[in-house]
């Protein structure tokens, strides 16, 4: 509808007011976006309410009243027409002042009003009727807008300029920008551009040539710059920002969720360009969790979430772990339970099934129930808590945390240790160690010579010309060769320098800021970071890189810019990467390539030193890379680019065709240098692995790295000793190939095995038992290219086939499944976070702590728990033996030998402290256990707690229980209460002496526990003298000598047998005692 004079005045007043607001809106929005947003919305809301009220009063009139209103307000209408005509003139003849006025008007509208400025020259009543008809359309749009206002926070403005609608929104949630067309009579070129100043965002500049005849709409969830570039009358090239995603009409196909992390299959089909355009999606188009975007921005579509992500699918559900000793104790408890039933039945059979025999049967079961060690579980759990406390208090392994107190004994029975590589055996820090040029080699001690040669080369400026680099027949000097090698290393990579953002107020240029800030290099491979860091240390630094160029800082401080023409990334199949760059100063085009020696030997020109030097560096544990180059002419590059582009457009066999085109370029390359990079090992990794190997622990390394890297680390870490050979399992893809390769491997079972994950999967699919049998005979096994799920499956496979205890150690989230699948999981707190540490049973700070954790704490925990279990079982067996003898002597009566209080006190206050003090016992010191790791081999046999030792303690219990009871029957006089006094006192003394007999290394707390328990029993004799004991008999010498005789007969023979055994068949550890 047309504007009345009141509405026009209100609009002008408010526009001036809102213009003042918007001038400070940008700064205030940054400082307090939420508070300022509320204030602006409030002001705009009041303005909108006033305008809409003015509009609604007029909208309620019918068409006839509207015409009459215009007749009456003819002067006001002419004023409005003059205003609109002036705006039209301003649009046709734009000047800076006019543009500023237009911007002020537009900004004054604000983001929450809907003014409709209708530019019409009203001259006749017919035109008034036409304007009134337009009112109805505007009224409909207003109602539609009011409905949308409830669903969207952003409000829309409309402005008709020369018959064209320009819709845009200043909402913080939505940008709508639509250009229909520019309509004008006469010379339309006069209207060149409209500059819209956004109150909260960047400038938007749209030129007429960009927008003529083209309609575009863009949406965004944030404010992003929008730049329309001149691409012709019917095409607009929009800046690729987040707003583009909302306008794409298409669909993406992704394969079903699977565990494989090395592949992805999908397609993207777009249907908004007038036709269907389908592009393939591969692993190169994906970004996984925790990916660092080194520079720029990345737009993406979430494909998998929650349980469908690769990381979650490769993580197994945690389970409660039960130690082998607990299973053995459960087995012995079942045997003891059967013994209770059998003994009760035997007693009942001898007594005869007369009267209420089932009552007698049940009473016998209750009397003999002390055979079942109910308190054993409590004592074991308390002991495990004590072992965990000892581990965390050990100063030799600081920072160790025990997260599972149920399996510390498992550390003493480990046969297979499965370890990750990166971050576990190594620090994941690459250090440049060697640069070999064929005739000269540079080590860290001689890197200053490299710096001198580099300065000389740049000062002469000779190597900077393209002519000097294209003279292969001239023998180049060392200076030139060093320059070419260092420049190749500084250019051939995928490294991006990242500078930390600073809030400095000075307006320094980007180059000045980069010169004062320390660059942090981001790359997918730490090897490349090491190489680029080394080039920076010698004077050739990478200061900037984007998608199309990179800049190097030479020793003089000047920056040299290179244009990136093509990049060929590293893959496990090609084992090399390449890059084509053009130096802007000289225009020289150079193809650089670096890769593994096994593939580069056939690519570079003939030489007689490369293979030998690669072997020398490999024996030193260095990771080698061969660097070469090839200078291309402009014609050669254009020919290659054409063929390369055609190959990438192929729908079928695209990868094969692209590889063929690239291989055509990889011919007769000039060999520049050979580099050696060391992956720094964790502290004391080599002696730790040596200790574990001498302890009889077989070590498997499971890593996701490539085969060459895994083999190199296996040699440098001494996982494979120098005298052992390495057998690399050939790639197999079928059952026949796996069968042939296994037969070949069978003849070299004494060698260390290196196998890839896909070959391992084929072998396990068809020859699982045969492969595990052969692999277990190897001194070491290295599995490379191994997924997290495969790591867990290997652990389960070893547990299933060998029945041995396994331990897994890792430091990253990809090791969690392996750690949880193992019998004992150890996590290292490293650079990859604390996922492994939190999911593991034991958390350590470095790999070298594993040796002490297994050889010392594992040994002590297992030995102590075994002794504690056997003694608790002995404590229940001896009193049950005495009960059985007592019942059999007194006509198989189901009567308790001791009162209930004494029975409870026997298992608690009288013997609890000495028995539990066995958790302080140890057979050898920590120094001996670390010095002689061979002692650990006996623990894996499980001889400390077995059926042999169990039945030995059963015989001891029967002997001592029989001696105490029959001795008491022989020596008691006339009162039965004397039997209770003699037998119970002898029983307590026997238990205290047996604890002393079992102890191998005394601790002062053990002596305190013995004395304290004996004192409690003596005190109870005084307290209970009127209940269970005869006071006069306790004070007599008869009581004393009878108890001493019975106790001596029950214990002294056992001491003699123990002495004779240590004399003629001593255990292995006793030979090392001082």
Automatic annotation (TrEMBL):
Enzyme superclass (EC): translocase
Residue positions binding Mg(2+): 420, 422, 811, 815
P-type ATPase C-terminal domain location: 838-1066
SUPFAM superfamilies xrefs: Calcium ATPase, transmembrane domain M, HAD-like, Metal cation-transporting ATPase, ATP-binding domain N
Stored Pfam families: Cation_ATPase (PF13246), Mutator (PF20700), PhoLip_ATPase_C (PF16212)
Membrane topology: Multi-pass membrane protein
Keyword hit for Ribonucleoprotein: no
Biological processes per GO annotation: endocytosis; phospholipid translocation; retrograde vesicle-mediated transport, Golgi to endoplasmic reticulum
Gene3D superfamilies: Calcium-transporting ATPase, cytoplasmic domain N, Calcium-transporting ATPase, cytoplasmic transduction domain A, HAD superfamily/HAD-like
The keyword 4Fe-4S is assigned to this record: no
Entries under InterPro entries matching the protein: ATPase_P-typ_cyto_dom_N, ATPase_P-typ_P_site, ATPase_P-typ_TM_dom_sf, HAD-like_sf, HAD_sf, Mutator_transp_dom, P-type_ATPase_IV, P_typ_ATPase
Record: active site: 420
Record localization: Golgi apparatus membrane; Golgi apparatus, trans-Golgi network membrane; Membrane
Entry's EC annotation: 7.6.2.1
Binding positions for ATP per the UniProt entry: 420-422, 528, 570, 594, 623, 703-705, 785, 791, 814-815
Listed cofactors: Mg(2+)
Alphabetical keyword list: ATP-binding, Golgi apparatus, Lipid transport, Magnesium, Membrane, Metal-binding, Nucleotide-binding, Translocase, Transmembrane, Transmembrane helix, Transport
Assigned GO CC terms: endosome; Golgi membrane; plasma membrane; trans-Golgi network
The reaction(s) this protein catalyses: ATP + H2O + phospholipidSide 1 = ADP + phosphate + phospholipidSide 2
Regions crossing the membrane: 287-306, 335-354, 950-970, 976-997, 1004-1027, 1039-1057
GO molecular function: ATP binding; ATP hydrolysis activity; ATPase-coupled intramembrane lipid transporter activity; magnesium ion binding
Family under the similarity heading: Belongs to the cation transport ATPase (P-type) (TC 3.A.3) family. Type IV subfamily.
Record protein name field: Phospholipid-transporting ATPase
């Amino acid at each position: 509808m047309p504007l009345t004079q009141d509405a026009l005045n209100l609009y002008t007043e408010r526009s001036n007011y809102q213009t003042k607001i918007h001038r400070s809106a940008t700064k205030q929005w940054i400082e307090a976006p939420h508070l300022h947003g509320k204030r602006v919305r409030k002001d705009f809301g009041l303005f909108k309410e006033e305008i809409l009220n003015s509009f609604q009063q007029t909208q309620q009139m019918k068409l006839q009243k509207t015409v009459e209103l215009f007749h009456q307000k003819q002067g006001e209408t002419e004023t409005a027409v003059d205003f609109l005509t002036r705006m039209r003139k301003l649009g046709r003849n734009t000047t800076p002042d006019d543009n500023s006025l237009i911007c002020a008007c537009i900004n004054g509208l604000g983001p929450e009003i809907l003014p409709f400025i209708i530019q019409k020259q009203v001259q006749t009543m017919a035109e008034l009727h036409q304007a009134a008809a337009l009112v109805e359309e505007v009224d409909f749009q207003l109602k539609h807008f009011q409905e949308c206002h409830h669903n969207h926070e952003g409000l829309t403005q409309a402005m008709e300029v020369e018959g064209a609608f320009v819709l845009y929104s200043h909402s913080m949630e939505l940008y709508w920008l639509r250009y229909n067309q520019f309509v004008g009579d006469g010379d339309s070129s006069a209207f060149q551009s409209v500059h819209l100043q956004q109150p909260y965002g960047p400038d938007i500049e749209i030129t007429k040539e960009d927008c003529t005849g083209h309609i575009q709409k863009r949406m965004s969830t944030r404010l992003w710059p929008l730049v329309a570039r001149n691409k012709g009358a019917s095409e607009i090239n929009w800046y690729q920002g987040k707003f583009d995603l909302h306008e794409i009409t298409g669909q993406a196909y992704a394969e079903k969720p699977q565990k494989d992390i090395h592949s992805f299959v999908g397609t993207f089909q777009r249907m908004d360009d007038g036709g269907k355009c389908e592009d393939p999606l591969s692993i190169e188009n994906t970004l996984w969790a925790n990916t660092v975007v080194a520079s720029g921005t990345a737009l993406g579509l979430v494909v998998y979430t929650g349980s469908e992500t690769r990381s979650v699918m490769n993580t197994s559900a945690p389970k409660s772990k039960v130690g082998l000793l607990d299973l053995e104790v459960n087995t012995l408890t079942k045997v003891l339970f059967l013994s209770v039933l059998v003994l009760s039945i035997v007693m009942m059979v001898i007594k005869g099934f007369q009267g209420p025999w089932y009552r007698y049967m049940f009473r016998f079961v209750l009397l003999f129930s002390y055979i079942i060690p109910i308190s054993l579980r409590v004592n074991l759990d308390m002991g495990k808590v004590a072992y965990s406390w000892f581990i965390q208090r050990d100063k030799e392994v600081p920072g160790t945390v025990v997260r599972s107190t149920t399996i510390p004994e498992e550390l003493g029975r480990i046969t297979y240790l499965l370890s990750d590589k990166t971050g576990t055996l190594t620090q994941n820090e690459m250090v440049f160690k060697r640069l070999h040029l064929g005739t000269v080699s540079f080590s860290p001690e001689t890197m200053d010579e490299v710096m001198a040669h580099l300065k000389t080369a740049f000062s002469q400026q000779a190597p900077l010309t393209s002519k000097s680099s294209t003279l292969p027949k001239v023998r180049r000097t060392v200076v030139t060769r060093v320059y070419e090698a260092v420049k190749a290393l500084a250019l051939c990579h995928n490294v991006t320098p990242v500078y930390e953002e600073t809030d400095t107020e000075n307006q320094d240029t980007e180059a000045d800021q980069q010169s004062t800030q320390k660059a942090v290099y981001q790359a997918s491979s730490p090897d490349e970071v090491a190489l680029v860091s080394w080039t920076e240390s010698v004077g050739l630094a990478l200061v900037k890189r984007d998608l199309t160029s990179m800049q190097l800082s030479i020793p003089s401080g000047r920056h040299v810019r290179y244009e990136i023409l093509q990049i060929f990334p590293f893959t496990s199949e090609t084992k090399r990467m390449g890059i084509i760059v053009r130096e802007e100063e000289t225009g020289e085009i150079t193809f650089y390539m670096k890769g593994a020696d096994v593939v580069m030997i056939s690519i570079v020109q003939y030489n007689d030193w490369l293979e030998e030097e690669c072997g020398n560096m490999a024996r030193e544990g260095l990771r080698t890379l061969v660097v070469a180059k090839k200078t291309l002419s402009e014609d050669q590059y254009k020919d290659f680019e054409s063929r390369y582009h055609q190959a990438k457009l192929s729908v079928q066999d695209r990868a094969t065709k692209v590889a063929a085109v690239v291989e055509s370029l990889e011919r007769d390359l000039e060999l520049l240098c050979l580099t050696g990079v060391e992956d720094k090992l964790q502290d004391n990794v080599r002696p730790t692995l040596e200790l574990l190997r001498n302890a009889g622990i077989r070590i498997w390394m499971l890593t996701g790295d490539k085969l060459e890297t895994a083999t190199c680390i296996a040699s440098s870490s001494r996982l494979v000793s120098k005298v052992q050979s390495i057998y690399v399992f050939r790639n197999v893809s079928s059952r026949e190939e796996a069968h042939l390769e296994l037969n070949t491997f069978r003849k070299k079972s004494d060698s260390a095995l290196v196998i890839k994950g896909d070959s391992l999967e084929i072998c396990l699919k068809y020859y699982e038992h045969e492969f595990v049998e052969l692999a277990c005979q190897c001194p070491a096994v290295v599995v490379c290219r191994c997924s997290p799920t495969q790591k867990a499956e290997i652990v389960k496979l070893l547990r299933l086939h060998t029945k041995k205890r396994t331990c897994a150690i890792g430091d990253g989230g990809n090791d969690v499944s392996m750690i949880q699948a193992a019998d004992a999981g150890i996590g290292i707190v490293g650079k990859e976070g604390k996922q492994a540490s939190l999911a593991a049973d034991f958390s350590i700070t470095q790999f070298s702590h594993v040796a002490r954790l297994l050889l010392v704490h594992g040994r002590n925990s297992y030995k102590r728990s075994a002794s504690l279990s056997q003694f608790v079982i002995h404590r229940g067996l001896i009193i049950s033996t005495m009960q059985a003898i007592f019942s059999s002597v007194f006509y198989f009566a189901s009567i308790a030998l001791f009162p209930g209080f004494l029975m409870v006190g026997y298992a608690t206050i009288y013997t609890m402290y000495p028995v539990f003090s066995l958790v302080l016992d140890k057979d050898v010191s920590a120094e001996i256990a670390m010095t002689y790791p061979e002692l650990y081999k006996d623990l894996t046999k499980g001889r400390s707690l077995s059926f042999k030792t169990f039945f030995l303690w059963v015989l001891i219990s029967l002997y001592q229980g029989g001696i105490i009871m029959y001795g008491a029957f022989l020596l008691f006089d006339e009162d039965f209460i004397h039997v209770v006094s003699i037998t119970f006192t002898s029983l307590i003394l026997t238990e205290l002496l047996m604890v002393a007999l079992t102890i191998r290394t005394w601790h002062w707390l053990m002596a305190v526990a013995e004395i304290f328990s004996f004192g409690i029993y003596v005190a109870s004799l005084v307290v209970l003298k009127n209940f269970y004991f005869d006071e006069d008999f306790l004070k007599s010498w008869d009581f004393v000598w009878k108890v001493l005789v019975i106790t001596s007969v029950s214990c002294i023979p056992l001491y003699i047998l123990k002495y004779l055994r240590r004399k003629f068949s001593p255990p292995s550890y006793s030979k090392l005692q001082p």
